[in-house]
Design a protein that fits this description.
By secondary structure, this protein is an alpha/beta fold. It contains 7 helices and 9 strands; from the N terminus they run αββαβαβαββαβαββα.
């Protein structure tokens, strides 16, 4: 069982305050990354989870704007420190947060407690050996498209756990790997792209929301192995 007291003793953190749809959120981040970086190979499992990505901010705002439907199940994959799921739960969505990295999961649990979401379901999820129960009406993720070796397990996960008639929303800045992934997915999904602009005092960043639904019932049934 997660203990916020043990977490505070284990990690040196700093808090970041965000305002999303007029609601304040305080998110704990690692104060230093040294302990999470492999000294022999710094690029191996670099802690990409240990920051709040601009795409996560945009996706959070999108879900906050969406009217909650108590009978719909949401799933977030690659949740990092937990911002998206925490915002979604705070605005009434029934969402399950998942992440693979154990350190990130600890921060996600702490942030859920800090933001009054202690009952938010948080699970460890290995894309290559998923153990989720049932299917979901919506699957969301932000900035999870980096490694080519993740493409096959990621696409299989999305196909297997999306309920027929459901929707996937992936938020990301545009990169070559993003285009390559959607070339794989377009065989089974209708894909629409919505551009969002996240502005700061000095610049604006374009974030893409990729919205995907099965092309037809046959496409959905091809992956209907989970009840």
């Amino acid at each position: 069982m997660f203990s916020i007291e043990a977490f505070c003793q284990e990690y040196e953190t700093e808090a970041t305050e965000l305002v999303i749809n007029a609601k304040k959120f305080n998110i704990l981040l690692p104060k230093k990354l040294d302990r999470f970086i492999n000294p022999i190979n710094a690029l191996h499992d670099f802690p990409l989870w240990a920051k709040i990505w601009k795409a996560s901010w945009v996706l959070s705002g999108y879900l906050a704007d969406m009217p909650p439907a108590p009978d719909k199940r949401f799933l977030e994959i690659g949740a990092g420190v937990g911002l998206v799921s925490i915002v979604a739960a705070s605005f009434g969505h029934q969402i399950t947060m998942t992440e693979y990295n154990s350190e990130a999961l600890n921060f996600a649990h702490a942030n859920a407690h800090l933001n009054n979401c202690p009952e938010l379901p948080i699970q460890k999820l290995d894309w290559r050996r998923p153990r989720l129960k049932g299917k979901f009406d919506m699957i969301v993720a932000s900035e999870v498209i980096y490694k080519l070796e993740d493409f096959v397990p990621l696409t299989q996960l999305l196909r297997s756990y999306l309920r027929p008639g459901g929707e996937i929303i992936l938020a990301s800045e545009m990169r070559k790997t993003v285009k390559d992934l959607f070339n794989l997915l377009k065989a089974d999904f209708d894909i629409k792209v919505e551009k969002k602009s996240l502005r700061s005092d000095t610049a604006a960043t374009q974030i893409m929301l990729f919205k995907m639904r099965f092309q037809n019932l046959r496409s959905a049934k091809n992956y209907d192995k989970i009840k």
